[in-house]
Design goal:
Shape: elongated
Largest sheet: none
Oligomer: single chain
Strand content: under 5%
Radius of gyration: 15 Å
Number of helices: 4
Number of strands: 0
Order of helices and strands: HHHH
Distance between the termini: 51 Å
Helix content: over 70%
């Protein structure tokens, strides 16, 4: 259940990417993958690479996915911006 909570939090945070310029590596799908992957990885790190079961999952479990989601989106955005910049330099 903890894995589901982290993934759903990553999905929820991903919806806010429509307010940013589309410079993600892989477009909006890349942002989705970065958000969900980041949320799940940070959640696993926080819990020592074990997934909380149904009785150990609380609201705080879902909130633990927020930092990872933001980190994942940020990394995908930075990589996309870097590739866009390199492509513009190659065209010039």
């Amino acid at each position: 259940m903890g894995l589901l909570a982290w993934a759903m939090m990553g999905l929820a945070i991903w919806h806010f990417t429509i307010w940013l310029p589309d410079r993600y590596w892989g477009g909006i799908v890349g942002a989705f993958i970065g958000s969900v992957t980041g949320a799940v990885l940070v959640g696993l790190i926080i819990h020592g690479f074990s997934i909380p079961g149904p009785h150990a999952t609380h609201l705080v479990t879902a909130v633990e996915g927020i930092p990872g989601s933001l980190i994942g989106i940020g990394l995908i955005y930075l990589e996309g911006s870097r590739r866009e910049r390199l492509h513009a330099l190659a065209q010039a």
